[in-house]
Every structure is written in C-alpha cells, then in structure tokens.
Amino acid sequence: MSTIHKVPMRKCVGCNTMKSKQELLRILKTQEEEILLDITGKRNGRGAYLCKNLQCLITTVRNKSLERSLGMKIPKEIYENLKKEMNMFEL
User: Fold this and answer.
1) Which burial class, exposed, middle or buried, applies to 53 when counting CB atoms under 10 A from its CB (0-12, 13-18, 19+)?
2) Is a pLDDT exceeding 60 seen at residue 91?
3) What's the CA gap between 31 and 24, in Å, rounded?
4) Which of 32, 35, 55, 68 gives 20 to 30 Å between its CA and that of 14?
5) For residue range 43-87, what is the model confidence (pLDDT) as tens digits?
6) Can you tell me whether residue 76 is helix, strand or coil?
7) End-to-end C-alpha distance for the chain, whole angstroms
8) Closest by alpha carbon to 69, among 50, 42, 90, 41?
9) Considering the entire predicted model, what is its pTM?
10) CA-CA-CA-CA torsion for 86, 36, 17, 40, nearest 10 degrees?
11) What is the rounded distance in angstroms from the CA atom of residue 8 to the CA atom of residue 68?
C-alpha cells in the first residue's frame, strides 16, 4: 500500500496561475527589508512566488503585485537584479 503525498501548490503573482512549488521561484523579503531570490525556498522571511519566465516579472512590475505581496516599495534596481538572476532559471 503506497502513501499519496500532497504536492504544495503556490500562486504566481505575475500570471495568477497555481503551480507546484518546485515550478516557481520564491522572491523573499528579509527582516532587514532586503529583497532576494530564494533558491532553496526555505529561508526566513515573507515570500512571493513567480514563474520562471521574464514575462511574469514584467507583468508584476507593471501591476505592482510583487510590491503588494511583500508589503513594501521596491526600487527599480531590485527589479533589474531579479531580472538578471531570473535569466539563469528561464526555461
């Protein structure tokens, strides 16, 4: 008899689609108000999830959905850094 494991699902803040946690990238706001790309998905802080494509990042910049999700104003430099880091993960 095998056990069925529940797959954790998360919603992309760019396109609002539900995907498994492994298919998404976690954007993290630390206690020091720092915005990082959390590759492990286990660091402490407030997280928001994005698909691994640049179109979702562009959509979230336009809609400011990442800012709402993390509860802070995000400077353009942070978005540029996220774009560079996401280029490594794009499918």
Assistant:
1) middle
2) no
3) 22
4) 32
5) 999 999 999 888 999 999 999 999 999 999 999 998 898 888 888
6) helix
7) 36
8) 50
9) 0.85
10) 90
11) 22
